[in-house]
Amino acid sequence: MTVKTTNQLQKVAMISLLVGLVGLTGCATTGDRDKLQAQIDSVSADASAARAEAAEAKAMAAEAVSIANQANATSAETEMKIDRMFKKAMYK
């Protein structure tokens, strides 16, 4: 699920960048190249920020999976202990 979210964020960032570039190339013929470059830089910065956020989300998800696995192992151990205690009580 996390990889899917990361991929979706990267796709959205790349599509935004491409749409921005395609939409702004018509303006380049008017001689307003500085404005175009500023907008391209802005879109590129947004894409970089999206990538950074996706990497952070991926790290958090990996940590959550690790914690869930630990909780599952603890639960299984506790269940086995309770089962042994119950069986021991039944033999008395």
Topology:
Blueprint: H1 2-25, H2 33-91
Poorly predicted residue ranges: none
The chain-level structural class is mainly alpha
User: Roughly what is the average pLDDT, rounded to an integer?
Assistant: 83
Query: What is the CA–CA distance across the termini?
Result: 49 Å
**Tally of alpha and pi helices:** 2
Give the beta-strand count.
Answer: 0
Backbone shape: rod-shaped
What is the string of SSEs from the N terminus onward?
HH
The amount of beta strand, in percent, is under 5%
Helix share bin:
over 70%
The rounded Rg comes to 26 Å
Largest beta sheet, briefly?
Answer: none
How would you explain this protein's 3D organization?
The protein is rod-shaped. With 92 residues, it is mainly alpha-helical. The two termini are 49 Å apart. The mean pLDDT is 83. It has a domain at 2-65. It has helices at 2-25, 33-91. α1 runs antiparallel to α2.
Question: Key terms for this structure?
Answer:
single chain; 92 residues; mainly alpha; 2 helices; 90% helix
Give a quick summary of the entry.
The chain has 92 residues and is an all-alpha fold.
